[in-house]
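Weekly modeling sync, notes
Attendees: S.R. (lead), two postdocs, one rotation student

Agenda item 3: backlog of single-chain predictions. S.R. asked that every request posted to the team notebook include the full sequence so nobody has to chase files. The rotation student volunteered to paste the first one in as an example of the format we agreed on. Action items at the bottom.

Example entry:
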Amino acid sequence: MEKKEQYAVGLVGIGAVGTEMIKILREREFPAGEIRVMARRERDESIAGETFHVIETTPEYFDGLDIAFFAGTEGARGASQQFGWDAVERGVTVIDNGDDFRMDERVPLVIPEINPGALSGSQGFVANPNCSTIVALMAIGPLHREFGVKRMVVSTYQSVSGSGSSAIEELDRQVKANVAGEALTADAYPHQIAFNVLPQIGSMKPEMPGYTSEEAKMLFETRKILGDDRIRVSATCVRVPTYYAHAEALNLEFEQPVSPEAAREVLSAASGVSVVDEPEQSQYPMPIVAEGKDDVFVGRIRPDDSVENGLALFVVGDNVRKGAALNAVQIAEALIHSA
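Predicted structure, as returned to the notebook:
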């Protein structure tokens, strides 16, 4: 990417993630001389006191841009497939939050705090990992560097914002209907989400019988980001009735012995991580603590005696911020810094 004082920035998609990207670009004073917003239909959108004229996405609207963010939510497909590589050919650096190209060998899959070196292999197209993968690896990555992760068992508790604005509205509507004594209807999910949990996120994976696409992402994305195909991963991904922030219970097996004290020391020094681990005082990571925050919070750090060199911990991160919008903006910042 050419070094400039200001960059022409494009944004494809203006749902929960796209809206947050604009807020973060402004908060971090990203050197955007222009923010050009594209979506399926033309309209005006008001975001954090600014009005943006949204234009219908077409290939020619990428001309003149330096960077384009594709702001899909979990499992979102289509936009980057249709426009991504064409935009690269037009001289645009693409940063994609969707999952179409995460496992493409041409495309680095990057968490800037964990594997920034992967950006050196970019061909103008970089992928954001899945939100649940980012939240987990913000804690696992520093521990892997020190002690070597062999195996991880992950149980996620993922908020409805991971499914986009319609799911947030559905949870809100169901809660209000329940209070009013009215029938609860489900559209965004196959079942009621209010006062319930759904042990399926994404579609079932025929090549991994019994596992969902979200659980498969945890396996394959972890291996790609950490650069180690030997790591064994078992994930169970669950949708829960919280609005923002994904929580995850991690059980890790390491190559080397690791004490909770050593893990806390490593994590306390890790960029983008906050250790909140005083359960005796009821201090531990929770979605309401992580909501709206940039850091991933780690706590309940304790031995896992079911395996040799085992450790258990609990992590929470805002899936729309660090799990999506912030990570994408940090990728752009890293590319600018290395230009």
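Discussion: group reviewed the output briefly. The longest strand covers residues 149-158.
Action items: rotation student to repeat for the remaining queue; S.R. to check formatting next week.
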